[in-house]
C-alpha cells in the first residue's frame, strides 16, 4: 500500500511540476506580448508627439500668414478706395 501511495505522490508531484512548467511558459508568452504592446504604445506616442509638433508649427505659420494678410489688407484697401475715388472724380469731372 505504501508503494502505491508513493507512486501516487510521485505522479502528483510530476503533474504539479508539469503544470508549473506550463504556467511559466504562459507567463513568458504573456510578458512577451506585454513588451510588444508597450513598444507599440511607445511608438504610437512618439508619432502622436511628432504630429502634434507639426500641427503646432503649422498653426504658428498660419498665424504669421494671417498677421501678414491683415497688414497688407490694411494698406491695400485704403489705396484701392483712394483709386476708386480718383476714378469717380475723373469720370464726373469731364
Describe the structure.
The protein has 94 residues and is mostly helical. 98% of the residues lie in helices and 0% in strands.
Topology at a glance:
Blueprint: H1 2-93
Structural class: mainly alpha
| Fraction of helical residues | over 70%
Q: Cα-atom Rg, whole angstroms?
A: 40 Å
Query: What count of helical segments does DSSP give?
Result: 1
Question: In one word, what is the shape?
Answer: rod-shaped
Q: Give the number of DSSP strands.
A: 0
Mean pLDDT equals 93
User: Main beta sheet, described?
Assistant: none
The low-confidence parts are none
> How much strand?
under 5%
- Could you state the order of secondary-structure elements as H and E? H
Measured between the Cα atoms of the first and last residue, the distance is 135 Å
